[in-house]
Design a protein that fits this description.
Layout (H helix, E strand, L loop, with lengths): L7 H19 L2 H20 L3 H16 L11 H21 L25 E6 L4 H13 L3 E6 L12 E5 L8 H13 L4 E5 L5 H10 L3 E3 L4 H13 L8 E5 L3 H13 L3 E5 L5 H8 L3 E5 L7 H9 L9 E5 L4 H9 L4 E4 L4 H21 L11 H13 L7 E8 L2 H8 L1 H18 L5 E6 L2 E7 L3 H16 L3 E3 L2 E3 L3 E8 L5 H17 L5 E3 L8
Parallel strand pairs: 1-2, 1-3, 3-4, 4-5, 6-7, 6-8, 8-9, 9-10, 16-17
Antiparallel strand pairs: 11-13, 11-16, 12-13, 14-15
Helix pairs in contact: 1-2, 2-3, 3-4, 8-16, 15-16, 16-17
Amino acid sequence: MAQPPPSVINDRIYVLRTRWEHYVSGGAFEHFIEFTVAVNSLAEYFNRMRLPGLVRICEGLENLALTRLGTPASHPIGAQDIKVLQEQLNALLDAVTASRPPVAERRVDDHATETPDSEWIKPRSVWLVVASEMHEMAAALRKQLDFFGFQIHETQWGGQQPAGDVPLAVLFIPSPTRSSNTEELAYIARIRKHCMASQLIYLGALPAIDTIVTLMRSGIDETIPQEEGSSRVLNCVLDLVQHYEPEKFRVLVVEDSRVAVTLIQRTLSAHGIDSHAIRDPGALLDVIESYRPDLILMDMYMPRFNGVEATRVLRQMSAYTSLPIVYLSGESDVGMQVEALRLGGDQFLIKPFNPVLLAAVVKTKIERFRETQRSTQIDGLTALLNHTAAKSQLKIMAGNMTAHRALTVVMIDIDLFKSVNDTYGHPVGDQVIRGLAWLLKGRLRASDMIGRYGGEEFLIALPDVSPEKARLVIDSIRKDFSSLPHAHPKGTLFATFSAGIASYPDFDTAQSLTEAADNALLEAKRLGRNRVEKAARPASFR
């Protein structure tokens, strides 16, 4: 019987071990670079899988390796350095093993395939470490976490660690009347040692750098101010179980040397980065249009014209003014480098390049570029489309409608929201908005458009869904939202929303769909709130 293919994580661990063993046995500089690249790749994988504890351990190993990278002449490194790296590698491997749930023994005749590693089954338990005077707040948080399906285990500060598997997260809720003492810090360190792959969150840290650094040194991953409270906590925990696979990074290499192209593309491929190379910069505009890169690696000196001239041409085109451009060149004259950057480049790397540094620069530049693009379309509080992006997307969707397709638009507004802000404060109000955003993302399809239209109002577009079906779906979400607890320092509150629905072809433009859904929403408010109403068909359709 054929064995199932090795999982992604096992494959990466095998590569990491093998490259380290090759270096220890031979001491070659190239093997050390390959080992460092493998550590970096594993850290990125854990980051995509939302496993911050493992990311932290992996980055610790990577930092140790980078401090010993040096030059070929400094290798092999000494026995003491080998020992330090081996200990950190062992700690990482132990943490990976401890963080994975046990796999039930499989019968010989069981033909089921293994769960793909991209669907890593993470623990759903959360530990609450609570000071005696903070149990009321802990109880409110527990209700929220219960609603989203987490198993909660609570213990006192300094008490025994809860039994069972290693948790997804540990939340420390200290007394607000005193700062962390030596015993509390030692207790955090013990939890950290036992839960190496878990996210450790500290609620109520004083906004002082000395305090936060001390907590971080004890093992805390994230500190949350008291005033942000449960909203940030819930956001952090829910983020840990959301798997996302970002679109692959794309790099256009403009380089006339075949040897340099091979080295560059091999380095990028080792980090999971897609690349396309051209030798003639004259083809640059056509290739950018078709390949749509996130970054250009530009050689300085090429036939016909140089990299700086190519960059200046791109910077005159509005579509490419912010596209990152990194120069790769043997040019060592600092004045020339500064001039190249002044004329449009973002960074200058010297050939022969360090592959670890090249990959780090490329990934950092692309991440910032994508984040800048994303920030113009995404609402910061909810991570949904913002007002402008939602309207634009709805216009596109409505413009693509045909006589045989359906499109239903929904306007949602949280009831009596001003009183929530006035009574409990804006941080709690933000939490209520975010809670509804989480529900909408969790209950609706990937093909549905969800946007924060403004304040406490949301705009939704459901393609190929009849108004009757849409009403059932939105009403189900309405009921769920009304039972969702929102924790605050003095307990728990509940909120409701009203909604209005309008559909194509009753209304055949984005503007008319939005206006009709908004009028239906006003009708739902007028009829008592906490309900869903459908827009009346225009007279021409009756």
